[in-house]
Structure formats: structure tokens, C-alpha cells
């Protein structure tokens, strides 16, 4: 089920001008009718729903005339007043709120966008957004897997605070050395989302693609924790394909997601809108048109571990759809009033595509799992072709959107910071530290871990080391000089390592993060088993 929501465009009050020299009050002929009240100003506070502001006539004006003209007739004075006190012309272009398009890729690596240097992967639309806006070199996902990052993006809260630190429903690994903490099985309704921010200001909101913030992926209209209950009006939810699906049948729904986005834009061309385009590309299984794959197989460097021809084909399809969306915005004359954000929910698959220059990949706390592409285009505000190296995370989307909308009454436990000073060039972020918490085993991952990045240094805490005494407790890297995290400095800089480790522990305690514990049912031979049934057997 889909819903369209419309409101009338906001109108500006016409200013009263041209009467500064009229000083003598006209004697009233009769009591004038009381004019309608002025429209109420939209509140900057957050609310779940809002009626569109009503337009209305101007308020009453005081009638005046010049000294020395009191002997004129009332009719003559009326003519004088019409000439002298005529309102200024109504502006031809009313003040209009910014539209926002948030384009989220799935498992797209930092090194798979052209503006980061690749010539193998073709992303002309994404590159154009970066060229027309700001590219962030130190952008991170709040978590190395999808659901936690998406929850962070929606709420401005770190996944550890939300108790959503693994993909939903996750894997319990019942025989592993450590037990994972309890997880919240979806984004709670009491959490305010960016979609609800937009709705509070009268925006049409559209969600097209992957959601992955409910107990399962079976969307049901009106079901709690599905997009409709979290602030979206027009909705398409999709799931990744099966390995045996037909790659020619839009297996990853890239075409469907684009088409629904275009319909949404057509329907809301006269309304302020928030369009959330959330693809499955380049999540496994890797499926795409064989002819397009052949194009990438024939390209120079196709055998380089960084380059995956199937991923190249999938990314081209996604980027092409993104281009169609931006073209439609241009056709509607909305380009100069639309903010465009491009982002990926976590790093890429190291097993299928090397994450150079970073180490690791998805489901790992290494840079390859959490350093992601981010570009923001904001016409007239963000300097085209600009770059920024401040520490950014998905927690920052919510307060940034709130700032764009002028909403200043936010939940008290927001972890992110508004990026507005960075985007408009007015300042910098008052932050030099980011925290990460991934207390989980994952079949694509390395080991359960947490991390803190402070300045150029990054410390990783390995939970099997600190909790069970197995293996190293920490690793320390200068990720500016050593982005591949090959030179462990923990022995060389023990005081720094100790300080960062303590800060990381304090942060987890302050936000109420779930902690791993020793597993009394640990079985070395079955350590890698991910599931267990009610009888204690493997339920895979």
C-alpha cells in the first residue's frame, strides 16, 4: 500500500511599505471588519504529524495621511492612500524548502567510486555529485554491517546505544568462545527517524528499496517497525535475490527501485520531498546481465583483486538509475532546490573484492569494513569540488537533516553532530573521536571487536583477548600514515593504547552498550556453527 501526501506551497507575507511619510491618522468612518488571523508560523519543534500552514491575507494596517491634506474629501484621501501605501509586489519566487535525496548503496567499498581513483568501476553520476559538492575522505559507517548503520542513519544514535549492533536477526554462534549481548529485534517505534523529521515539516516521504530494520523482511502495510510506521508515506520494500534467480529479471530490483523513485518525483514535483533510495547493490549474490559483465571482464585490470567484473556491472546499473533520478529532478526544474547525498552502509566484501588501500572488509572493524564513500551536493551552499577530512559517521545524518529543516528540539541522547558548519564552510566539527562496537561473530568477519579512532590513531579492542584472555587484547595504528593497518604500535605506545582502551570502555558504559560474556557452552570443534535448534543441534 502506498500513500501520497500533498500540501499547498507556503506563501510569503507581503511587506507593508511606502507609507513612512504619512503621519496623520484618518478619522475612521466605521469600524472595519476584523481581518482573518495571520497564518501560524511552523514550529521548529518535532512533532509526529503536522497540518500544512494555511495561507491568509495580510493583517490590518493603520491608515495615515500627510499633514495639510485633511481638507480633502474621504474619496480623495482614499486615492492618495492607494497610491502611497500600496503593498510591495509579492515575490515571484516564494521561499521554498529544500528537497533531499539520500542515495544509499549496500556494501559498496570505498574504492569502488570513480572520485576515489578507480578507473575500472564506472560511477559517472556519483562522481558528478562529488564534483558538484563535497567529498569526505574520513567518512565512516557506525558499524561494519547493514542494519546497525541504517538504524544509526535513521535516528542519529550510535548502534550500541540502540542495542542494534548486528544485522537483523544476526547469528548467535551458540558454541563460540563468547556470547553476544541481547539485541533489539528492530528499530523501536519510540525512536524518532529522519523521515518523521521531514513529515513534521510537511514533506512527502518516499522509501524505495532495502529497509532491514524489522524482525524480518516481509513488509506488511501498517506493521510496527516497517517503513510506514517510521515516517514514510510512499513505500517499496525489496529483498536481495536468491543465487538461482534470473540475472536478466532485475534480480536486485535496481530497475524497480529507480522506476518507483521516478513516479514519486513526478507525483511530488510541487511538494517538498524526502526521497530515500536504498539499493541492494553490491550485496551478494552477485547477479547481473552477462553482456554487461562481459564488458568489465574485457577491461584492463579485470584480474586485479580490487576489481570484480560482476560488481562492476552491478554498480554501473545502479549508477545509471541514480542518473535517471537526478535527470528527472532536473526536468522538473528542481535541481537548484535539491540536496543530494550519496553514502554506503558499510565496507565491501573482502572475500570477493580487495579493499585496498584498507585492510579487511564488511563485518570487520578494520578500516575496510567501516570507511565508506560519502558525497554531498547542496547547490549554492556547498562549494563545488570541495573535500573534507574531518571524522564523519552515520550518526551525523539525523542532526544534519534537523539543521537543514530548522528543527531544534531533538532527542537528548543523539550521538551525531550536525555537519552544517562543514557543509556551508562556516566552521568545523567539535569532535576528534569516533567509537565503534561490534560484539559479534560473522561468517565474513574477523573477530568480535570494538574500536576508537582519535585523531590519526585508531585502537582496536579484540574482545576474545580482553574478556577471555585468548589472543591479543588490542592493536594500535596510525591510520593516516598506515591506512592498511599493518604496523601495530601498541607495544611502542603503551600509554596511548591504555588511554584509548579506557576511553572506549568508558564510552560503552555511558551509552549502555551490550557486552559480550564468556560462553559456558563453548565447544572448540563447533565454534563456527552459527545456529542451534531447540534440541541443541545445528539448525542450518
Q: How would you describe the overall organization of this protein?
A:
This protein is an alpha/beta fold. The strands form four sheets. Strands 7-6-8-3-9-10-4-11 form an eight-stranded mixed β-sheet, sandwiched between helices. It has a four-stranded antiparallel β-sheet with strand order 12-13-14-15. α6 runs parallel beside α8 and α7 packs across α8. The radius of gyration is 28 Å and the shape is globular. The two termini are 34 Å apart.
What secondary-structure arrangement, pairings included, does this model have?
Blueprint: E1 24-25, E2 64-65, H1 74-84, E3 99-105, H2 124-132, E4 134-136, H3 146-155, H4 159-162, E5 178-179, H5 194-200, E6 204-209, E7 234-237, H6 254-267, E8 273-278, H7 290-297, H8 309-331, E9 338-344, H9 367-370, E10 374-377, E11 386-388, H10 397-405, H11 420-424, E12 433-438, E13 449-454, E14 457-462, H12 463-468, E15 474-478, H13 494-511, E16 517-518
Helix pairs in contact: 6-8, 7-8
Amino acid at each position: 500500500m502506498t500513500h501520497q501526501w500533498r500540501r499547498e506551497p507556503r506563501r510569503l507575507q507581503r511587506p507593508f511599505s511606502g507609507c513612512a511619510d504619512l503621519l496623520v491618522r484618518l478619522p475612521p468612518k466605521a469600524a472595519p471588519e476584523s481581518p482573518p488571523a495571520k497564518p501560524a508560523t511552523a514550529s521548529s519543534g518535532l512533532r509526529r504529524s503536522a497540518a500544512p500552514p494555511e495561507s491568509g491575507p495580510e493583517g490590518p494596517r493603520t491608515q495615515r495621511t500627510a499633514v495639510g491634506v485633511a481638507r480633502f474629501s474621504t474619496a480623495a484621501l482614499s486615492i492618495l492612500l492607494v497610491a502611497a501605501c500600496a503593498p510591495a509586489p509579492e515575490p515571484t519566487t516564494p521561499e521554498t524548502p529544500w528537497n533531499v535525496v539520500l542515495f544509499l548503496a549496500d556494501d559498496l567499498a570505498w574504492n569502488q567510486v570513480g572520485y576515489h581513483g578507480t578507473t575500472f568501476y564506472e560511477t559517472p553520476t556519483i562522481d558528478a555529485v562529488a564534483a558538484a559538492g563535497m567529498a569526505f575522505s574520513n567518512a565512516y559507517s557506525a558499524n561494519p554491517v547493514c542494519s546497525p548503520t541504517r538504524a544509526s542513519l535513521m535516528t542519529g544514535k550510535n548502534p550500541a546505544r540502540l542495542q542494534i549492533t548486528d544485522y537483523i536477526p544476526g547469528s548467535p554462534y551458540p558454541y563460540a568462545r563468547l556470547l553476544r549481548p541481547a539485541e533489539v529485534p528492530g528499530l523501536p517505534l519510540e525512536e524518532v527517524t529522519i523521515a518523521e523529521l521531514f513529515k513534521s515539516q510537511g514533506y512527502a516521504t518516499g522509501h524505495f528499496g532495502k529497509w532491514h530494520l524489522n524482525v524480518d523482511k516481509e513488509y506488511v502495510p501498517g506493521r510496527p517497525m516497517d517503513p510506514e510506521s517510521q515516517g514514510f508515506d510512499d513505500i517499496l520494500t525489496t529483498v536481495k535475490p536468491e543465487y538461482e534467480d534470473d540475472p536478466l529479471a532485475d534480480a536486485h530490483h535496481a530497475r524497480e527501485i529507480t522506476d518507483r523513485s521516478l513516479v514519486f518525483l513526478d507525483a511530488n514535483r510541487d511538494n517538498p520531498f524526502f526521497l530515500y533510495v536504498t539499493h541492494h547493490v553490491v550485496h551478494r549474490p552477485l547477479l547481473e546481465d552477462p553482456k554487461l559483465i562481459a564488458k568489465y571482464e574485457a577491461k584492463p585490470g579485470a584480474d586485479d583483486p580490487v576489481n570484480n567484473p560482476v560488481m562492476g556491472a552491478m554498480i554501473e546499473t545502479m549508477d545509471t538509475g541514480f542518473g535517471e533520478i537526478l535527470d528527472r529532478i532536473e526536468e522538473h526544474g528542481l535541481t537548484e532546490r535539491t540536496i543530494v547525498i550519496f553514502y554506503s552502509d558499510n565496507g565491501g566484501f573482502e572475500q570477493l573484492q580487495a579493499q585496498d588501500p584498507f585492510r579487511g572488509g564488511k563485518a570487520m572493524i578494520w578500516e575496510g569494513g567501516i570507511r565508506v564513500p560519502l558525497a554531498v551536493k547542496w547547490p549554492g551552499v556547498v562549494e563545488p569540488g570541495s573535500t573534507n577530512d574531518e571524522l564523519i559517521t552515520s550518526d551525523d545524518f539525523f542532526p544534519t537533516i534537523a539543521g537543514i529543516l530548522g528543527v531544534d528540539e531533538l532527542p537528548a541522547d543523539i550521538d551525531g553532530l550536525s555537519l552544517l558548519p562543514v557543509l556551508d564552510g562556516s566552521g568545523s566539527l567539535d569532535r576528534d573521536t569516533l567509537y565503534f562496537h561490534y560484539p559479534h561473530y560473522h561468517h565474513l568477519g574477523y573477530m568480535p571487536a570494538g574500536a576508537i579512532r582519535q585523531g590519526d590513531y585508531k585502537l582496536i579492542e579484540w574482545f576474545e583477548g580482553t574478556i577471555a584472555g585468548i589472543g591479543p587484547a588490542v592493536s594500535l595504528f596510525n591510520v593516516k600514515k598506515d591506512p592498511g593497518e599493518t604496523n601495530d604500535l601498541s607495544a611502542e605506545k603503551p600509554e596511548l593504547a591504555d588511554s584509548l582502551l579506557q576511553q572506549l570502555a568508558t564510552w560503552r558504559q555511558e551509552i549502555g552498550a551490550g557486552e559480550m560474556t564468556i560462553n559456558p557452552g563453548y565447544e572448540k570443534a563447533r565454534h563456527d556453527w552459527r545456529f542451534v535448534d531447540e534440541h541443541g543441534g545445528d539448525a542450518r
